[in-house]
Design goal:
Structural class: mainly beta
CATH architecture of one domain: Sandwich
Shape: extended
Number of helices: 6
Helix content: 10-25%
Radius of gyration: 63 Å
CATH class of one domain: Mainly Beta
Largest sheet: 5 strands, mixed
Number of strands: 27
Strand content: 25-35%
Distance between the termini: 180 Å
CATH superfamily of one domain: Cadherins
Length: about 575
């Protein structure tokens, strides 16, 4: 029961399965024998005997010039009737003017070739590209190599679409130079940008003021010329980094930005000076040509206009009898003693002018003064004292004695000042007696007292009643023995509407009339109840006692005091009223 093929070169792609019926007979196939049948399904396995084929010879694609690298442009697909690994296809670009601008990858799930952007496009530079793409089988069966080639090619044409692009500067960055202290309006440099679109719109320029807060520069909005409008100082700022904007005139949203670095070129405008505030010391016993200090200089200018420095003495003191100067030719100089022996008593301080010149073009120089003090030294040259007063004070008082005397004087002055201040701050008595009359006195206490034992703040005598002790108790509710005529006040006219003047006049009359009750007085109550030296506080009992006091004046006080006049009036008047 061996099944064999009956035809050569069967094609799976034409027919993959065959169904046959097999019959088996016994008795050698003679008459009368029995038979049985079965159905057999035969499937042809695939071999790579078909190359990939593109269904069309040209593919058309388009992409915007604003697309970014990696963006998909389009897809191509070559058909291979084989299946499995025999049908795998790989794509590649083998020719064309867009090989550097595009790339192609294989999508193994869909067996498609994906064309992607490799570099940025520019519509204004090139509007279309052509690619030759090849599709080839990955696995080739050597038995069927004669059926080859197992690959195919296709042409892909890609057109670039114009996009609205921002302006583009001709350089990614600019570097300019300008001399310091240049006049206002000096041109620093020029930037240039253009519209890459076909419309080629006009461009306007401006400076980002966040990068030029001090407004050292300005730019011509039309041609991009940058100018310095303020004096530039290299020693203050050697570089200025600004940003320039370029925008389309009719499309303000389309703008570009470029960095601009401006170097301030040095000009020799700073003279050299001492590197520090030098102060030299020379011994009284210094020897001739002895070096006692080395000086150096600084220059704010650039190295081209700074060192090397030249040190010298002014021409008028070139033959200075005390000191001389030696230029060490390494931007330092040494000061030496020209003569032997100095005396602090004759002169303890010398001022030596030194001229320092730089190597700029033109050179600048400055005169600096070196302070030299004469000091006492031991035999080894170590400083002992630089005070010229040391010799003078030996004949008189020492420094310590003078300081002690001054301190005593200062202490005495402080004591005197404190004494005078305390005297002025001593308070006057708070109660002023005027002929033993304590009426109409206001006692003011502006400090806290010390209790009953504190007799400095007030007079304790005011709390006592000296008249009561002597047996005389004045009556404060009767008319005084002495009487004064009321002072005529300024009475306003009856029809006057000035109420303020009226009230003030009445107050003045009441204050100046001592006969008008109530009488101004200080009532002193030392004790209470019967037996007090102050006596009774009520005058009602006087109505039932004999009294020599005359209360007839109560009749003149008006109806309001009529009841009191009846109680305290004379007996005759009382009888008549009865």
């Amino acid at each position: 029961g061996i099944i064999r093929t009956a035809l050569p070169n069967m094609d799976r792609e034409a027919k993959e399965e065959y169904h046959v019926v097999i019959q088996a007979k016994d008795m050698g196939g003679h008459m009368g024998g029995l038979s049985g049948t079965t159905k057999v399904t035969i499937t042809l396995t695939d071999v790579n005997d078909n190359p990939p084929k593109f269904p069309q010879s040209v593919y058309q694609m388009s992409v915007s010039e604003a697309a970014v690298p990696g963006e998909e442009v389009g897809r191509v697909k070559a058909k291979d009737p084989d299946i499995g690994e025999n049908g795998l296809v790989a794509y590649s670009i083998i020719d064309g003017d867009g090989m550097d601008m595009f790339e192609i990858t294989t999508d193994y799930e869909t067996q498609e070739g994906v064309v992607k952007l490799k570099k940025l496009l520019d519509y204004e530079t090139k509007k279309s590209y052509s690619l030759k793409v090849e599709a080839a089988n990955v696995h080739i069966d050597p038995k069927f190599i004669s059926n080859g080639p197992f690959k195919d090619t296709v042409t892909v044409k890609i057109s670039v679409e114009d996009a609205d692009e921002p302006p583009v500067f001709l350089k990614p960055s600019y570097v300019f130079e300008v001399q310091e202290n240049a006049a206002s309006g000096t041109v620093v440099g020029k930037v240039h940008a253009k519209d890459p679109d076909a419309a080629n719109s006009a461009i306007r320029y401006s400076i980002d003021r966040h990068t030029d807060l001090e407004r050292y520069f300005s730019i011509n909005a039309e041609d991009g010329n940058i100018k310095a409008i303020k004096a530039l100082d290299r020693e203050e700022m050697a570089w200025h980094n600004i940003s320039v904007f370029a925008v389309e005139v009719h499309k303000q949203h389309q703008e570009a930005k470029v960095p601009v670095a401006i170097k301030v070129v040095d000009v020799n405008d700073n003279a050299p000076k001492f590197a520090a505030a030098y102060e030299a010391f020379v011994c009284e016993n210094a020897r001739s040509n002895q070096q006692f200090i080395t000086i150096s200089a600084d220059d704010k200018d650039d190295s081209a206009n700074g060192p090397r420095f030249i040190f010298s003495l002014p021409p008028e003191i070139i033959h200075n009898p005390n000191f001389t100067l030696r230029d060490n030719r390494d931007n330092t100089a040494s000061v030496l003693v020209r003569r032997e022996g100095f005396s602090r008593q004759k002169q303890d301080l010398y001022l030596l002018p030194i001229v320092i010149s730089d190597g700029g073009a033109p050179p600048l120089s400055s005169t600096n003064t070196l302070t030299i003090r004469v000091c006492g030294c031991d035999s080894n040259g170590s400083l002992l004292s630089c005070n010229a007063e040391a010799y003078i004070l030996n004949a008189g008082l020492s420094t310590g004695a003078l300081i002690a005397i001054l301190a005593c004087i200062v202490i005495l002055l402080v004591i005197v000042v404190l004494f005078v201040t305390l005297k002025r701050q001593k308070k006057e008595p708070l109660i002023v007696f005027e002929e033993e009359d304590v009426r109409e006195n206001i006692i003011t206490y502006d400090d806290e007292g010390g209790g009953e034992e504190d007799t400095e703040a007030f007079d304790i005598a005011t709390l006592q009643n000296p008249d009561g002790i002597n047996g005389f108790i004045p009556r404060k509710d009767i008319k005084p023995e002495y009487q004064y005529m009321p002072r005529p006040g300024l009475r306003p006219a009856p029809n006057s509407v000035d109420v303020d003047d009226f009230i003030n006049t009445r107050i003045q009359e009441a204050d100046n009339d001592p006969t008008a009750p109530p009488y101004d007085s200080i009532q002193i109550y030392g004790y209470e109840g019967r037996g007090s030296v102050a006596g009774s506080l009520s005058s009602l009992e006087s109505a039932t006692t004999d009294s020599d006091l005359d209360y007839d004046y109560l009749q003149n006080w008006g109806p309001r005091f009529k009841k009191l006049a009846d109680l305290y009036g004379s007996k005759d008047t009382f009888d008549d009223d009865s």
